[in-house]
Design goal:
- The structure holds 2 protein chains of 2 kinds.
- Chain A is of the alpha+beta class.
- Chain A is 30% helix and 41% strand.
- By secondary structure, chain B is of the alpha/beta class.
- Chain B folds into 3 domains: 168 residues, Rossmann fold (3-Layer(aba) Sandwich), CATH 3.40.50; 161 residues, 3-Layer(aba) Sandwich (Rossmann fold); 189 residues, Thiamin diphosphate (ThDP)-binding fold, Pyr/PP domains (Rossmann fold), CATH 3.40.50.970.
- Helix content of chain B is 36%, strand content 16%.
- In chain B, the strands form 4 sheets. Chain B has a 6-stranded parallel sheet, sandwiched between helices.
- Chain B starts with a strand and ends in a 26-residue tail after the last strand.
- The chains are: A alpha+beta, B alpha/beta.
- Chains A and B meet through helix 1 and helix 2 of A and loops of B.
Amino acid sequence: MRHTLSVLVENNSGVLARISALFAARGFNIASLSVNETEEPAISRITIVVKGNESILEQVTKQLNKLVDVIKVTDFKDIGYIERELALIKITAVNKTSRDEIIRVAGVFRARIIDISPDSVIAEISGDESRLSAFMKAILPYGVKETCKTGVSVLCRGNAGKIK
Amino acid sequence: MGKKTGAQILIESLLKENVEVVFGLPGGQALPIFDAIHGSELNFILTRHEQAASHMADGYARSTGKPGVCIVTSGPGATNIVTGLATAYMDSAPMVAISGQVATDVIGQDAFQEADTIGITRPVTKHNFLVKDVKDLARIIKEAFYIATTGRPGPVLVDVPVDVQRSVCEFVYPEKVEIRSYKPNYNGHIGQIKKAAEVINRSERPVFYIGTGVVVSNAQDEILELSKKADIPVTNTLLAVGAYPFDSKLSLGMLGMHGTYCANKCIQSADVIIAVGARFDDRCTGKICDFARKAKIIHIDIDPTAISKIVDVDIPVVGDAKTVLKEMLGLVNTKEHKDWIKTVGVWKEEHPLSYDTNDNKLHPQYVIEKISDLTKGEAIITTEVGQHQMWSAQYYKAKYSRLFLSSGGLGTMGFGYPAAIGAKFGNPNKEVIAIAGDGSFQMNMQEMAVAVLNNIDVKVIILNNQYLGNVRQWQEMFYSKRYSHSCLAKRKECPKWCNTPNRAVCPVYIPDFVKWAESYGVLGIRVTDKKDVELALKKMLETKGSVVIDMWVEIEENIFPMIPAGASLDDMIIRMNG
């Protein structure tokens, strides 16, 4: 089961280390992680995608809450939210045929080609996890040379995720 | 208020927190702090090892309920207290540790005696702080004490770079603490408490399983009242020895690996288990899938992470034990469980704790029984870790909580003796006795200098079996008696595979603990015969100042009952050949 947690933390030095150390020490797996300052400079938002069953998720959430620097943990399981991730994918394209095909596939997924080199192109795509992985699957046969993803960004709809 | 240096601010903040005593050892990057101590009224105790300083602070904390404090230097000073922090963290003891650090502008440059103290201590503290600006220091000290002592208590470390110690600023000690991200919840959810009470009211075979949380929240009276009102037997963890009167017919004694037969039988037969401030440690539960299969589990704990971490809980109540139990008292019916209590009585009689009393050998359990009798269970006992620890938990009848101090979670050898010294500083009018194995005692026995120089009257009883006895017991039982490196008397000349220890032929034991004690100007007594035990103990109790008794107990005595690691509570071994 894939869960997206949004963790609001005090923007203190070492807070990311506390969180990643907690995951490592308790044997929880992080699928994706992103850290940003929020509109309030004293607070950072850490978005973590965790894979695990309900009981693992419950422990992760509780353990995060137990950290003194953690202000709020939101599990986007039961509330409406918007999820986005941006990926850059370098795809092998040694001739015009393959380049054209890649550009066509990218068009279908509304990905943008942002660089063309003699033997590769770079596509940029943003969206939720299913969109990104579907594009990845479609583009795989052409030969993926390198990828880089930003990690998931999530905001809930309405007021559910606000600091108390 | 006037300007002060960081070091002065630190010391004055400790005084504002009413810190009675601080344990530690100076060093280069803590010199400004020690200079400030020199001119202050702070009672600072110089230890011989930083690890011992942290255990002293811990022993002080556990015996008084007040936070223990230690101050050490950077690098090795800080790494030496890691064991002490981990020990306190596992057992929820409130502690504030201050470490010196290299100057802020050289942090990260591998400076002399630099260590990433914050990084190293992060997983073994409740929280830690690096003070980068002297203006934050007073607030951080205030927060450190607040975090250490509230909620589920634990150790907090404050790392203070030497330039921050020297920097100057206005000193104002904050009146209040406001940490928006840390708000422990003391009141249990009333709906959950009601649900729990209903389950208890319907139960036929309920059991209380009480742990450190009962001691920390001082909920002994509430447990006693509730157990009597609803006729519920009570078993305690190692750290809750003394929290329930041992002579009550409802008392089952300790549960788990070396718990009593009746406690483990009760857990396995119960229809409701009410866990209070206990964390389902593997030494208590045995094999999880076989643990209390018939029971609904109610779990009262202030730490939400303790709930359903190991055992699935049916009714969790997050809150302070005392507060929740008080609430529960009004909701739980007066009831008798005649059949259940009768069954419990049968189990108690079937296999009480026992050892060979027919021979005239010096059994370690006998020594503990005598200590218990002679002190009327009113002395503070500390233990190290191993066989003597389990015998002490089984046979020392502590009258109240905070009289039995032991490293339960981490199992730290070397804890007991310094913890006893710390406990004595907090309880100058109580008898304090450190019960040790000959192995554990050697891990921090250098602290006798601290006891002697400060007129600290701590008695030491070494149950000397010339082995790391618990290791030897496991080797005897589970490794075909292959005594690999558990014999402390073994010399180069000994046969490599010796498993037939015999004091008559074994090499002379070193150190000679009696002579060793004498070298500190302390009375040392050696007891090798059962008939001399009582006399020696009486002499010890009559003597003012430190005393060391070296008890040459039966070498291959084993702790029973025993549940092998990973086995179910149903698989108790009552005696070796029975």
